[in-house]
Design goal:
With 326 residues, the chain is of the alpha/beta class. It is built from 11 helices and 6 strands. Helices cover 45% and strands 8% of the residues. The relative contact order is 0.13.
Length: 326
């Protein structure tokens, strides 16, 4: 469903840009033609700019480190480049280009479960899946549906994927979740009492404490992500210290969706700050990938090659082929 919707939005934007450019070109206004067409295609940059103004304002009293104007500007630029790749290419057109990997010789290898966030699908993880595939690490990337339904609808999807990874590897998987996906994993742990069935949970920009922006959403899952929502409060009351200690939570003071920044942290968890990076672009960060590899290496009885964890020295070695360039 989401892929079809995002294909429609992407093709509509391209159509509007083409119509604008064609109309003014045939009226002998080439500058207006090109500028207007580019403006339509880059309109998301304006929306993102407004979000980063809000980030600076809403984080002013947050206990996390403050982001200066230069860092906010760099984060805006990174997200401006990342967003079209994710929402206009990977998710609408490439979400099924890479299949889940459950190799026949997977016993003893720690598997990875990839869980996306709001208005995303498994295409978000394409660069991750490419790298996991190259290392023959078992993995599953789920689609959380219904897209605009309650987060309580997602635990059975996660449960099914975990069962498949357990059967293929004989080990509890490492779970990596972005944004709302982190809440879906917490709901899964709560519903199934599954603390022992995840080796570790890594969340990236997950609104564990809700987010200020959710006040503008009307869907069930967005209402659940509001600050101090009854759903979040009830979930937190049922969680034990030992469960939260299984989490590594990555957050950023330049996150343009989960604000204030500290709401992406979880009590009793290992909370790790990644400075100067926006919400979706956090998925691209090499530091997080290296930490995931380390968790896999520590928790698996099978050896995982780690020769590519250093920063690339040229474009041909780039481990994130879809990563934006600045």
């Amino acid at each position: 469903m989401l892929a079809r919707l995002q294909r429609l939005v992407t093709l509509s934007l391209l159509g509007c840009a083409a119509l604008w450019a064609t109309y003014w070109w045939i009226h002998d206004r080439p500058v207006l033609s090109v500028a207007g067409g580019v403006g339509v295609l880059c309109s998301h940059a304006v929306v993102l700019a407004m979000e980063f103004v809000l980030v600076a304002y809403l984080n002013r009293n947050d206990p996390t480190p403050r982001a200066g104007p230069i860092r906010l500007l760099r984060a805006w630029w990174g997200e401006t480049l990342t967003a079209p790749q994710v929402f206009c290419w990977r998710q609408p057109f490439r979400s099924n280009c890479l299949a889940d990997q459950l190799p026949a010789d997977g016993q003893g290898r720690r598997g990875v479960l990839l869980v996306h966030g709001f208005v995303c699908n498994r295409g978000l993880w394409n660069p991750w899946m490419q790298r996991l595939h190259a290392k023959r690490v078992p993995y599953i990337a789920v689609n959380l549906e219904p897209v605009f339904g309650s987060i309580d609808a997602y635990p059975p999807i996660i449960e099914s994927a975990v069962q498949r990874l357990e059967q293929a590897t004989g080990q509890p998987p490492l779970i990596v979740a972005h944004s709302m996906g982190g809440l879906a994993v917490r709901a899964w742990l709560d519903r199934y009492g599954a603390d022992a069935r995840a080796s570790r949970v890594i969340t990236i920009a997950a609104p564990h404490g809700g987010t200020w922006l959710a006040r503008f959403g009307l869907t069930s899952n967005v209402r659940q992500m509001r600050r101090h929502s009854p759903w979040l409060q009830q979930l937190a009351r049922r969680e034990t210290k030992s469960r939260c200690a299984k989490f590594i939570c990555y957050y950023s003071h330049c996150d343009n969706i989960v604000v204030p920044a500290s709401t992406a942290t979880l009590r009793d968890a290992d909370n790790r700050h990644v400075p100067g990076v926006a919400h979706v672009d956090l998925v691209n960060q090499e530091k997080i990938w290296r930490d995931v590899l380390a968790e896999l290496q520590d928790g698996s009885s099978a050896s995982i090659p780690v020769t590519d964890v250093r920063q690339p020295t040229n474009a041909a070695q780039d481990p994130w082929p879809d990563r934006p360039r600045s």
